[in-house]
């Protein structure tokens, strides 16, 4: 059984724990950001607040819910896990963190993708030829609860999924086992895509 590391408190990310366990893995939580790739099989970067814009060369124009300590920790973890060649999956904020780690930039505020009240927004996406297409299909229904998105892609990254209005919904690295989705597989109940993605991540099938 593969163990996935998540930086942070367990009480904050219980939905991710449940989804990983349902897919056949287990989760280790912690506040450490150094040396974790040697201890665990994979890294998951979950959703949350926005990254500090200075990290991708911009002033703060619309970013909110900033988490500087988490930015530092997750970027350090990415350095650790990518150097070890171990799998990484980014979800929502996690996609944005991965893009910034590889030198990309973010759109600080986009319309029409935030949650609607307490519920995720649902929308269709188009998936390019990639391993993700075998999991989601060329067209899929996913959920959305974000106001930022990838803009210029980081070095080595490739966009493989988009909304109708052109927002990047998934990224992969061209050489490393690094994948990211802007949607939330841990709470996507309207489509099998979420469960398939997490199972493939655990099975190193991405």
Describe the fold and architecture.
There is one protein chain. With 206 residues, the protein is an alpha/beta fold. It has one domain: Class I glutamine amidotransferase (GATase) domain (Rossmann fold, 3-Layer(aba) Sandwich), CATH 3.40.50. Helices cover 24% and strands 25% of the residues. It has 5 helices and 11 strands; from the N terminus they run βαββαβαββαβββββα. It has helices at residues 14-22, 68-83, 93-101, 131-136, 193-202, and strands at residues 3-7, 26-30, 42-45, 88-91, 106-107, 121-127, 139-144, 149-150, 157-163, 168-173, 178-181. The strands form 2 sheets. The protein has a 9-stranded mixed sheet with strand order 2-1-3-4-11-10-9-6-7, with helices on both faces. It has a two-stranded antiparallel ribbon with strand order 5-8. Strand 1 (3-7), helix 1 and strand 2 form a beta-alpha-beta unit. The two termini are 17 Å apart. The model has no long low-confidence stretch (mean pLDDT 95).
Tags for this model:
single chain; 206 residues; alpha/beta; Rossmann fold; 9-stranded mixed sheet; 5 helices; globular
Write the layout of secondary structure elements.
Layout: E1 3-7, H1 14-22, E2 26-30, E3 42-45, H2 68-83, E4 88-91, H3 93-101, E5 106-107, E6 121-127, H4 131-136, E7 139-144, E8 149-150, E9 157-163, E10 168-173, E11 178-181, H5 193-202
Parallel strand pairs: 1-2, 1-3, 3-4, 4-11
Antiparallel strand pairs: 5-8, 6-7, 6-9, 9-10, 10-11
